[in-house]
Structure formats: C-alpha cells, structure tokens
Write a structure and sequence with these properties.
Layout (H helix, E strand, L loop, with lengths): L2 H26 L28 H25 L6 H23 L7
Length: 117
C-alpha cells in the first residue's frame, strides 16, 4: 500500500469526527430558545449596558507581546540547560535569538504599546 494512503485516511477521519460531533449536537440537541438563554452572561450578574463593546487593539498587542516572551522562555530553557555542552555556533544562535527579541521589545516600548491605558 502507498504510505500516503495512511495520511489521507488520518486526514479524513480527523475531519469526520469533529464535523460529526458538531452535527450531532446541532440535530439532536434541544431547541427551546427563550430571552433568558439568549441574554449575555456576565458571571451571574445582570448585564449592564450594551453587550458589544469595542476593545482597544492595544490590549491585544500587550497580550501578544506577553505571549512572545512567554514562548521565548520555553525555547531558551532547553538551550540554557545544555549550554555547557553546546558548541560556539549554538551559543551564537541563542544570542542572535535573544537580540532579535530585544529589538522587538524596544520597538514595542518606543511605540508606547506597553503602557496600560
């Protein structure tokens, strides 16, 4: 058998299972809408004002910068653990990686994206 047949079969099964679960929930689930079920839920408190509030993009950028440096720590930890066993090439690559992240941090800092408003 062709080895790509397994990949195609895995892809098809990977599509059928979630689509089937969503379709089963749609067709078999109870459908009894009422105003309470269709209202906005805010931790058990009655919602105040309009539910569609536009957030500033600055909050998302702040979260993305946090995520970038969180992922940086995940990538640097194994590198730091084996630093004594790595050659000069790997050390230089790690330094370049950290420098690129520092340039990104300085850029976002100068743009004022790290100031919580």
């Amino acid at each position: 058998m062709n080895e790509w047949l397994y990949v195609a079969l895995f892809f098809v099964v990977g599509l059928i299972i979630p689509i089937g679960a969503i379709a089963a929930g749609f067709f078999l689930g109870p459908k009894k809408p009422n105003p309470i079920k269709e209202s906005t839920y805010e931790c058990g408190v009655e919602p105040v004002g309009e539910a569609w509030v536009q957030f500033k993009a600055q909050y998302y950028i702040f979260a993305l910068v946090f995520l970038v440096f969180d992922v940086e720590a995940v990538f640097l930890f194994p590198w730091a653990v084996k630093l004594g066993q790595l050659g000069l090439y790997a050390v230089v690559e790690g330094i370049i990686f950290v420098c690129i992240l520092i340039v990104g941090l300085v850029y976002t800092w100068r743009k004022g994206m790290l100031e919580w408003a």
